[in-house]
Amino acid sequence: MLPRLPVAGVIVAGGRASRMGGRDKAFAEVGGEPIAARAVRVLRGIFPQVIVAGHGPERFRGLDVELVADVFPGCGPLAGIHAAMRASRHPHVFVAACDMPGLDADAIRFVCARADDADAVVPCWEGDIEPLHALYAVRSLPVVEACLRDGRHALREFLPQVRVAWIAEAEMRAVRGAGASLTNVNTPEELAAVGGRFASR
User: Fold this and answer.
1) What is the pTM of this model?
2) Do the beta carbons of residue 4 and residue 48 sit within 8 Å?
3) Residue 60, CA distances (Å) to 8, 57, 64, 110, 169 in order
């Protein structure tokens, strides 16, 4: 068994799930297990601290993880990262979205191994970037907070303010499990494509 990394694993939650008809995609089931429960299980195997951060984290109480609410509510994933950095007992946080049903330990460890002196390690994926399967240095907390206070809530506005180590898509795709790890489900069609469903109400 590989040693756990000196990093806090973070699940960022709090979207309105409008494209999922208002249903909480974090608790959709894939392979008979809620996405959030599986994510917590995977992160626990890699990191000594696991946090759920964002808007309304109390709905994750049954997963027995640390819950931290946004200090800047309504400001999106960057606010969740801010809250998680404040709660982290480690110098880095690995951040994943709550709608990633295939998080993979090998892919996550690959991202974390690229830390070096960067403030963020972000994969390039499907011709774009994926800042919610990425590593952030807690020392960048003042920059995160400054962006939030200035009304720059998007991660794409924060990232140019820090040193980013980009992982090329071709390099990321060579990692076993990366394709599944970087998949998220925003719509019923995307959920169905990974064999997922919502349990009966």
Assistant:
1) 0.93
2) yes
3) 17, 6, 8, 27, 32
